[in-house]
Amino acid sequence: MDPFTDPNSLNHAPPRYALESDSEDEDLPPASAYQSHRASASFSARSVEINVDWSGEGGAGLLVLVGNEAGVFGDGYIKPGRKPDGIVKRGDEAIAPLYQLSPDLVVLFIESSLPLSVPTPLTLAVLQTLSPSQVIVIDQYLASSYTTPIWASSDPTESNTDDHPIRYLSTSPTPSLPKSIVPFSPPNHILSPSAPFLSLIPLSSPPTHLFILPAPRPTLRLLGDLASLLDQLFGDRLGWDGSGLGKASGRRSAGWKAGGGKKAEGAASHMYI
């Protein structure tokens, strides 16, 4: 019988389905099992041992560089062969170098391939040790996979001259931005080690900005725009020099070895135009 063609079908009550079933409930694990699982996951996160070897004073600005593109950009601040002024360790393994660029600025390099259990405790350890006055994070996004929302085409803040601009998120007001820097929009997500720096820092205290470079190979002009903006945000000329980018003589190839002996991968390997 077809209920859509049979005129008598309206006289029949629709089938009823039980919303609850004691017999099915008996097959489900007790609520205590979920609570135990959550407690176990929380314990696993806390069990990651992160130590920050740092003898400098706190209260300076913090520049965090995540991943290869941001790391190569950061090579413009670090003289070739310079040794780190501090080290972030997971247990006995060195995973991230710290550089005191000036009395008011510390630079932290983070590889993007960290295990998922590391970024959150790393962020907490760094913030507790350095107590930064402001935090600026530089990360990267895969330009070919970025989804531009429909409304962005009519949003004046999205108008720019670059197919793949620098994108940003911020917990506090930003100064006037060049057209090459536009908002990072949903439905895109940040899943890299930079995410905890935005989610764990209380809103606007300290001010936190995330700038996301297009990958691969952002243009030298884009990097120059970002360097000028950082001078403005930190209130000082930081001396960024992009002339050596693309040469295998930068910070990670000459002055820093990750993992207690293994050279950090992704030394300045791109040519910029």
* Low-confidence region ranges: 31-45, 157-161, 248-254, 261-273
Shape category: globular
Q: What's the average pLDDT?
A: 76
Portion of residues in helices?
10-25%
Main β-sheet description: 9 strands, mixed
Enumerate how many helices there are, as a single number. 7
CATH class: Alpha Beta
- Main sheet strand line-up: 1-3-4-5-2-6-9-7-8
Order of helices and strands: HHEEHEEEHEEEHEHHEE
C-alpha Rg (nearest Å): 25 Å
- From the N-terminal CA to the C-terminal CA, the straight-line distance is 72 Å
Number of strands: 11
3D architecture notes:
This protein is of the alpha/beta class. It has one domain (50-263): Rossmann fold, CATH 3.40.50. It is built from 7 helices and 11 strands. The protein has helices at 22-25, 31-46, 67-74, 119-130, 195-199, 220-234, 251-254; strands spanning 50-53, 61-66, 86-90, 93-102, 105-110, 135-142, 166-170, 181-183, 208-215, 257-258, 262-263. The strands form 2 sheets. It has a 9-stranded mixed β-sheet, sandwiched between helices. Strands 10-11 form a two-stranded antiparallel sheet. A hairpin with a 2-residue loop joins strand 4 and strand 5. It is globular and about 45 Å long. The chain starts with 21 loop residues before the first helix and ends in a 10-residue tail after the last strand.
Quick recap:
The protein has 273 residues and is an alpha/beta fold.
